Amino acid sequence: MPKMTERERLADLEARQRKVAEEVESARRALRDRYAGMVTDLPIEALSERDFKDLLTHAIRVGGSQALSALKALPAAVPEPKSRPKGGPATSMA
After folding, report:
1. Contact 23, 31 (CB under 8 A)
2. CB 47 within 8 A of CB 55
3. pLDDT band at residue 85 using 50, 70 and 90 as cut-offs
4. Is the predicted pLDDT of residue 93 greater than 60, yes or no?
5. Rama region for 42: left / alpha / beta (φ>0; ψ in -120 to 50; rest)
6. Could you please report the per-residue DSSP string of 11-46?
């Protein structure tokens, strides 16, 4: 096999680089799709869209294990009482 010129070698390397970049992007999309599928099983409607995004962003920023450890250390959440309808009495009539 004849030796490649520097120009041919560069072209070959650039083609390989593009192929690897495409494979990385494909793998990234597949992983994100898999994780997005997990969200459909969670009761995320209890969070606002902003809170959900902030929660994920911070968890990813600090690292999953650290975020999970910090969240597990928090006391159990007490459900917020449902707000009373506007215009209703402020105290019980009983």
Report:
1. no
2. yes
3. low
4. no
5. beta
6. HHHHHHHHHHHHHHHHHHHHHHHHHHHHHTTS-GGG
